[in-house]
């Protein structure tokens, strides 16, 4: 073989090696993730706004015998404690104009210190008045100790005079104890919404500590609870390669977690949580039955999560690799850590929230 042929042969082999390498890289290149699930609650609930009647914050001009509660409240910074003793009636009233004609169900959260509290109550009533002599009333029934989620259809209220749902002037809670009893209750939120709403696209049943909340004209999926409240996003297993992003607004923050590769019973799976007084601490954990193992933890390097501001949490799973991040604009994510753990390779996605949060968007990519 002459020199020219050897040179051409060498060039050919080198070119062939490059082509084969490029083909190999193309073949083994990770498949880009594509969006498989997305919900924007501001858009979904645009036509089902709530009427926020009372939040019991400083500045609401309630009248009657009461004190502000900073211990039990979970929806906002303060709730309201009120009581009746010796059979005396205590009426607490907020003078406020609002229109309940677009909605059909009133809701409120009431804390009862004991399950048998109803035995000590002569009457407990919710009243909406459009004048001093024109009002709607409904009894309130408490069934358990702790927080009671009360839901009352507006068409079940009795009338006095000719009240108008469009022209409500005040809301009142009227409590009368039995003669030999003392009753103290706590309130955290009063609002009204439509019974029929678009499907929230979450497997957890709607109601109780998951509802809607309209803030500054935008309506969100809202979760509010004094205890960790779990939501399952989708029942199906997401496998072992995905990205899961949730954006939310903290109203009263304690702990907010993304759960992934979770068993349907929630006895096992991973958690990425932010917590602390300023939501400035993060943890990656895994749970196996009743045992919870800390995989990694730290403090946010940038700004802490602020109340009433949008926050994005993101977890990515690629085989045993887990990456967790946070963002305050939905674009630039701070990766808090990247670890490897192969304990779970399938399961559902979800949220565990303690406190009060507006869920803005949920996105899954695979």
From TrEMBL:
Q: Which UniProt keywords apply?
A: Membrane, Transmembrane, Transmembrane helix
List residues traversing the bilayer: 12-28
Q: What is this protein called?
A: Uncharacterized protein
Species of the source: Candidatus Roizmanbacteria bacterium CG_4_10_14_0_8_um_filter_39_9
């Amino acid at each position: 073989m002459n020199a020219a042929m050897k040179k051409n042969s060498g060039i050919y082999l080198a070119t062939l090696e490059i082509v084969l390498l490029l083909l190999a890289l193309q073949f083994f290149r990770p498949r880009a993730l594509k969006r498989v699930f997305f919900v924007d609650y501001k858009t979904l609930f645009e036509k089902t706004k709530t009427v926020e009647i009372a939040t019991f914050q400083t500045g609401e001009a309630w009248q009657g015998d009461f004190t502000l509660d900073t211990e039990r409240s979970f929806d906002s910074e303060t709730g309201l404690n009120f009581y009746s003793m010796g059979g005396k009636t205590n009426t607490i009233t907020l003078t406020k104009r609002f229109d309940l004609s677009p909605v059909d169900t009133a809701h409120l959260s009431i804390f009862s210190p004991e399950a048998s509290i109803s035995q000590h109550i002569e009457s407990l009533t919710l009243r909406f008045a459009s004048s001093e002599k024109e009002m709607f009333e409904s009894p309130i029934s408490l069934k358990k100790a702790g927080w009671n989620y009360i839901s009352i259809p507006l068409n079940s209220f009795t009338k006095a005079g000719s009240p108008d749902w469009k022209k409500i002037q005040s809301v009142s809670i009227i409590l009368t104890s039995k003669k030999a009893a003392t009753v103290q209750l706590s309130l955290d939120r009063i609002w009204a919404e439509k019974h029929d709403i678009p499907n929230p696209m979450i497997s957890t049943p709607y109601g109780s500590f998951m509802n809607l909340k309209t803030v500054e004209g935008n309506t969100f999926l809202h979760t509010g609870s004094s205890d960790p409240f779990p939501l399952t996003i989708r029942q199906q297993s997401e496998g072992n390669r995905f990205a899961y992003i949730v954006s939310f607004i903290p109203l009263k923050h304690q702990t907010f977690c993304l759960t992934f590769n979770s068993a349907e019973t929630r006895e096992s799976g991973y958690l990425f949580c932010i917590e602390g007084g300023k939501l400035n601490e993060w943890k990656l954990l895994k749970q196996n039955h009743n045992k919870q193992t800390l995989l990694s933890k730290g403090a946010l390097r940038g700004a802490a999560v602020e109340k009433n501001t949008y926050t994005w949490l993101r977890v990515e799973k690629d085989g045993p690799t887990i990456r967790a991040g946070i963002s305050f604009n939905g674009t630039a994510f701070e990766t808090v850590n990247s670890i490897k753990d192969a304990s779970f390779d399938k399961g559902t996605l979800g949220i565990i929230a303690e406190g009060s949060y507006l869920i803005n968007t949920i996105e899954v990519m695979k």
